[in-house]
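step=predict obj=Fumarylacetoacetate hydrolase family protein n=234
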Amino acid sequence: MSYLFPPVATVGLPVAGRDAQFPVRRVYCVGRNYAAHAREMGFDPDREPPFFFCKPNDPESVVPVAAGEVAKLPYPTQTANYHYEIELVVAIGKGGRDIPVEQAAEHIFGYAVGLDMTRRDLQMKMREMGRPWEIGKAFDYSAPVSVLHPLAQTGEINSGAIVLTVDGETRQQSDLTHLIWSVSEIIANLSTLFELQPGDLIFTGTPEGVGAVKIGERMVARIDGLTDLVVDVV
């Protein structure tokens, strides 16, 4: 098959202990999945059904970061309030629809650390107007992701510290046990809305403490048992 111009390349994430990369198909994100973060955003943290939004899966949006590397994120246009949101990222290795919670872990390939970078001022403006969030969430370089660690190596990850520092100062600090909806519940719920496929990524939500970063600052995102994600804003 021929194309009028070259198609967009597939993004590949590095995988711990393997030469082959994980090809990214779709990027799903869960909104307000920690109670304290829901409160800081002005919402009741009651356990209502999760809601989802997406980020692009192209090389201009998903930023793979290998072990020992420092990603360079250009400060985005049209914002004066550029926020970090550290998240556990779940990579799907086996597809399915209407997946039972009890079987959800069978569909996980592995885990990584991710940042859901956000143009907060644009997101809030769109929210106030009742419009979609895309310009606040789905922009270039909005989804840096660390090395993937296969489930076969880590086992299921349902607990562990999740911490983000900016220039060495702790800004976000919580534990994965504080997720309102667990990883298995997220997978089960999302699979009722979309047929999940190998290559899908799920950003599972961020804890409290979100805030702005500026040019010249360094973010270090850490989750117990996974490779750190280090990012400079340039």
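step=describe
The longest helix spans residues 120-128.
step=end
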